[in-house]
Amino acid sequence: MMGPGITRTTDGLRVRDLTVTFRADGRDVPAVRGLDLDVRPGKVLALVGESGSGKSASVLGMLGLLPPGTRTTGTAMVNGVDLLSLSSAKLRRRLGKDVAIVFQDPMTSLNPVHTVGQQVAEALLVHDQGLSSRQARARAGELLARVGIPAAVRRLDDYPHQFSGGMRQRVMIAIALANSPSVLVADEPTTALDVTVQAQILELLTDLCREQQTGLVLVTHDLGVVAGVADDVAVMYAGRIVERGTVDELFYRNSHPYTQGLLAAVPRIDLADYEPEPIPGTSRSAAGVDVGCSFAPRCSWAAETCLTDDPPLQDLRPGHGVACLRAETVAAAQERKSR
Amino acid sequence: MIEVSNLVKTYPVNHRKELTAVGGVSFSIREGETLALVGESGSGKSTVGRCLLRLIEPTSGDVRYRGKSITGLSRRQLRPLRQELQIVFQDPYSAIDPRMTIEAFLAEPMQVHGWARPDIAVRVTELLVTVDLGPELAGRYPHELSGGQRQRVVIARALALRPRLLVLDEPVAALDVSIQAGIMRLLSRLQRDQGLSYLFIAHDLAVVRQLSHRVAVMHRGLIVETGAAKDVYTFPRHPYTRALLSAIPMPDPRLERQRKRIVLSGDPPDPADRIEGCAFRSRCWKSEEDCSKEEPTLTAYDTPTLVACHHPETEPAGIGAESRS
């Protein structure tokens, strides 16, 4: 990690036309269909969706982390390099240095038979052959202190099982940010943690990323988390982005019926008589989509054309894109309602 | 209707140490009422739910159903009561035997209790309709159903023997948010229509807000605050309740920016460690010397909730329960 005051020149992450196709039972099963994403340096982009929306497949795909047999096409540019064009050996050298990832479950992400100090030091040594093991250990201690582990240097020789879930996730963040990557992907990083610990970890993650100008892709299903930490938001449904924009545009001027449905379904801690609204029907993955809008079967706004025509993701306003044939009508209704 | 007094459950860790999962918990649930039992992982909330149905044998304490103690009953004596007390677990994927049709899964409890075959057939259809599923689902297998549909099937089975109380152990925690709302509505309607009582176990105070009449907050095996839902949500007095409420993010960026969130420092203490005094004190911003000496017990102050704290908060909570002190 860089010290404060150091800035970096980077354009963040630029993903274009990403598709991910799995192979199952001899058939092609699409998971992501033509995804464009821009992650700005030092900003938080929340990638929101429910199970099966393709949000995890998207981020794993753009980092080349999907198993063999999966077909990934498109481009994912970081620091002038397209990650998807690299051989696996070259990609490995980029991972951790240009882009890093933190997963949901800190229990299985750490190696149980190595000390935490060894694992953080290893992350440093992989990308810096000039570092001595003593230097790496010292840096590991600094990194653990940086992510808020009390008595960090003393804990270098402890094993993962001696840490709590929240502390393990801190270790994972230290490893991920060890080489000051341009982009960090965090896939549901707090979902496995208790709610009081979740707040601490999110704060740590976003503070560190802002400080060192790392662009953060936060994959989450929790719209409360999004409202609290995101700068930009992209909502996914059935393998596509259906709406994207700044966090305020998405929460206050949303124009896709799915985004609206998702927001209306969230229970509220601050409203006594608020009854969350379910979205009718069953959510579908990209696999079940042939023609038309994938949300149309559950959509109260759906018209005839929605069942036959593909809605392109178009800017309704500068920087606010919506993939809905009826976006303008939906937006007008939303304006009236909020007035 | 059900009354729990001084329920304790301990587990041996090794020959010297003992883990207290539940350290003396008392509450009651009335007819047609929902008590939300809320806490983080390891707080003992699920253990309480299981002890209530004697799926786990409590170490000590008493559970009375309609005035009659059920803790001393033999398995056989317990059997008629099993019809009236049922449980719904979190994960609808592992709850249903994948080789069973939905019909067979729903019929099983009625077969065990000796129902006649025609009665069972009628009841299966009735149950599917009650949980808003089409009767044509009877012949399907669980893998053909979505998560939300499965949880409806699990709820239908819990209703098969016409219970009076359901223990709902995080029934929507594994479901997508757009599906959760539908299940919560269903539970609310079932309660209204059938006068059911619920013990709703949850880690998320937002999810249970609309359904709960009363709330009990658990921390490390003890209830630290309890009262009517509106009081617990708007004027929580225990610092831990405030921290829990404050930690829940709200889907509103402007409100989120205004909030002064209470961020607890440190981790929850290890459940196997013995702590003198208040178990929350290591993470509490209000703790003083007396907190390490004497364990606080549930006490009525001049506000409506009961709270186990030597230094309870004195002002109502702001948005999302931020402390104003």
UniProtKB/TrEMBL annotation, chain A:
InterPro entries: AAA+_ATPase, ABC_Ni/Peptide_Import, ABC_transporter-like_ATP-bd, ABC_transporter-like_CS, Oligopep_ABC_C, P-loop_NTPase. It holds the Pfam family ABC_tran. Belongs to the ABC transporter superfamily. It is a peripheral membrane protein. Residues 13-263 form the ABC transporter domain. Keywords: ATP-binding, Cell membrane, Membrane, Nucleotide-binding, Transport. One of its GO terms (biological process) is peptide transport. One of its GO terms (cellular component) is plasma membrane. It is found in: Cell membrane. This is Peptide/nickel transport system ATP-binding protein. GO terms for molecular function: ATP binding; ATP hydrolysis activity.
TrEMBL record, chain B:
InterPro entries: AAA+_ATPase, ABC_transp_ATP-bind, ABC_transporter-like_ATP-bd, ABC_transporter-like_CS, Oligopep_ABC_C, P-loop_NTPase. It comes from the Bacteria. The keyword Glycoprotein does not apply. Belongs to the ABC transporter superfamily. GO terms for molecular function: ATP binding; ATP hydrolysis activity. Residues 2-245 form the ABC transporter domain. One of its GO terms (biological process) is peptide transport. Keywords: ATP-binding, Nucleotide-binding, Transport. PROSITE patterns: ABC_TRANSPORTER_1, ABC_TRANSPORTER_2. Pfam families: ABC_tran (PF00005), oligo_HPY (PF08352). This is Peptide/nickel transport system ATP-binding protein/oligopeptide transport system ATP-binding protein. NCBIfam families: oligo_HPY. It comes from Kribbella caucasensis. SUPFAM superfamilies: P-loop containing nucleoside triphosphate hydrolases.
